[in-house]
Specification:
heterodimer; A: about 450 residues; Immunoglobulin-like; 6 helices; B: about 130 residues; mainly beta; seven-stranded mixed β-sheet; three-stranded antiparallel β-sheet; about 0% helix
């Protein structure tokens, strides 16, 4: 026995901060939408409007490439000033088009200057409602399409928000279910104690209010405690992983192939979009030091593309279904496991089915949150190579008697799963993991 | 001085945990919370949960009080390479939150489950003959 700060009083780290993720995603979406509206939407709107503007003759007064330098290098901008006359009044303007004004590439700015030399008299288009507005070129500028890279941010932001909303919804459902469960248990316990006890409130579940206790009788003597008296029971907010899994169950893969592919694709597009933009910019400017440095990032991007392609190819693998005769099996019990593969199973050299028990921990080191897994149980179920056995098979397995049941706390978990591994030559392997539950031997049914 | 006395330290799920909380020479206004908790130790960030608790507000300077909890059916005490889950009775002094802790085992047969270490290099061996149907 030792005296120290109470473990039960320390703040417990709870799950993922979905709210922060939602805000983060919202920032991405807002920035992306703002960029798209500003760089594509508004110029497009002006282009459409300008189709009804009236044509006049202009006179180019100034046409030159303006260079400005900053930390990132030189930026080039065509500066075109022109004069025009509308309803007997002379106007001047420098807005020659709805496109981007600046570019890292001098050639683009130079071509505009070459198109509108000083002293030339090209047609211009004047807004009849506001003659101070005029354009030399009223077509939609292709350079505006550069802003489409914002779609990547939009997709990422949207993805983050989708994940966060799902997480919040799940949390909300869990809280609601827990509250319902708690309410049922509270009414049950209240009913059972109100008849046997004169205390105002002596036994509760899921209520954290402090109790008055029976101090009148606890006067320092050694009083025996009647069962159920002034004991607070806490509703168990760690979900029972076997809840609702009794009986035959078709197991769901822990990650859907399409979702995994899309995840890798988004990350690859995001990474490569940024790194290649900077890389090409440096390459055109012949900034070789930056080019050499960015090669690392481009290389990482290539690995990400490889991963995305790898997961894309996996989409064409045979699909795997696994079912258990009981989705919540006790240690020491046997359970029947059946698998079914749909697709070209002849491509699979060998199919292996394995039961795996894992410790899964989440921990924080510095500013990083990491998750590690350690397998403590590996039970070979089947290793088949004929097409018939690969298509469909079943086996009976026994969960070791002296093992731990499934357990799920925010940072520490015990997970049991069925792993199906199909080796395919010159193609990404099938590797599907499907979770099931091992429940404590003493429990019958779903209730913890 | 406070002390938690238990008749034994190893329990099976559903078994009654009976003990006595003894205090001597305690100050005025101090209360105690006797809590049945589980917590994790190991590589992961600690998780913990109070399952049952009983508040004791001593009037006398010296005294004792019996308490009784029912050992929950889960989670079981276990030790692995990354995670150890332990049960404990905590006598928490309020409001200081200083605690005296007694570690228990709640598991089938009253024995902590020790997870095996496996050789991950030997990932797959041929299943037992006759297992396949």
């Amino acid at each position: 026995m030792n005296a120290a700060k109470a473990i039960s009083s320390s703040p417990a780290k709870r799950g993922t901060p979905w709210g922060c993720l939602l805000v983060f995603g919202l920032i991405f979406v807002t920035v992306a939408c703002g960029g798209l509206v500003l760089m594509i939407g508004m110029p497009l709107f002006k282009t459409i409007q300008a189709q009804r503007w009236e044509e006049r003759t202009s006179l180019i007064l100034k046409s030159e490439v303006v260079t400005s330098r900053d930390d990132d290098g030189s930026v080039y901008r065509p500066e075109i000033n022109f004069e025009y006359e509308y309803q007997g009044k002379k106007y001047r303007s420098s807005n020659w088009s709805t496109g981007f004004a600046s570019s890292s590439f001098k050639g683009a700015a130079q071509s505009v200057v070459d198109r509108f030399p000083v002293g030339s008299e090209p047609p211009c288009f004047v807004n009849p409602n506001d003659p101070s507005q005029a354009l030399l070129d009223r077509s939609f500028q292709k350079s505006n399409l550069f802003a489409l890279f914002m779609l990547i941010f939009l997709a990422i932001g949207g993805g983050l928000m989708w994940v966060a909303v799902r997480g919040i919804a799940t949390q909300w459902r869990q809280k609601r279910d827990a509250a319902n469960k708690s309410a049922e248990q509270t009414s049950f316990v209240s009913a059972s104690t109100s008849t046997s006890s004169s205390h105002k409130s002596t036994s509760r579940i899921g209520v954290e209010d402090e109790l008055d206790g029976d101090q009148g009788e606890d006067d320092g003597d050694d009083d025996d405690l009647e069962s159920g008296e002034d004991i607070e029971k806490y509703e168990d907010d760690v979900d029972a992983p076997w809840y609702g899994l009794s009986g035959p169950q078709k197991l769901e893969p822990t990650s859907k192939r399409l979702h995994t592919f899309l995840g890798f694709l988004f990350v690859a597009l995001f990474w490569n979009g940024i790194s290649w933009t900077i890389f090409l910019s440096a390459l055109f400017k012949q900034d070789w030091f930056t080019v050499a440095f960015l090669l690392i990032f481009v290389g990482i991007g290539a690995i990400m593309i490889y991963a995305a392609v790898h997961h894309f190819l996996k989409l064409f693998n045979p699909t795997v279904s696994v079912a258990l005769s009981n989705g919540a099996v006790c240690p020491g019990e046997s359970v029947d496991l059946a698998w079914e593969l749909v697709g070209r199973v002849s491509r699979i050299r060998e199919l292996r089915v394995t039961i795996i028990g894992e410790e899964v921990v989440t921990y924080v080191r510095g500013t990083n949150t990491s998750t590690d897994r350690k397998i403590f149980q590996r039970i070979p179920v089947a290793s088949v190579s004929t097409d018939e056995e690969k298509r469909f098979g079943s086996a009976s397995i026994t969960i070791p008697p002296n093992t731990i049941h499934s357990f799920s706390a925010p940072n520490n978990k015990i997970e049991w799963s069925v792993e199906v591994h199909g080796e395919i030559a010159w193609w990404p392997d099938i590797r599907e993991t499907m979770r099931f539950a091992v429940r404590p031997a003493a429990i019958s049914g779903d209730q913890p | 001085m406070i002390e938690v006395q238990l008749s034994k330290l190893n329990y099976q799920p559903g078994e009654t945990i009976e003990g006595k909380f003894v205090w001597k020479q305690i100050g005025k206004g101090i209360r105690f919370d006797i809590r049945l908790i589980w917590f994790t130790e190991g590589k992961g960030t600690r998780d913990h949960q109070t399952i049952q608790k009983q508040l004791i507000e001593p009037i006398e300077v010296d005294g004792s009080k019996s308490f009784r909890f029912v050992a929950p059916t889960w989670p079981h005490s276990f030790s692995g390479q990354f995670i150890s889950l332990r049960w404990a009775i905590e006598a928490v002094e309020l409001p200081s939150e200083e605690a005296t802790t007694v570690i228990l085992v709640i598991a089938p047969e009253g024995q902590e489950i020790v997870l095996p270490r496996i050789d991950e290099s030997a990932k797959f061996t041929k299943p037992i003959e006759g297992l396949l149907r």
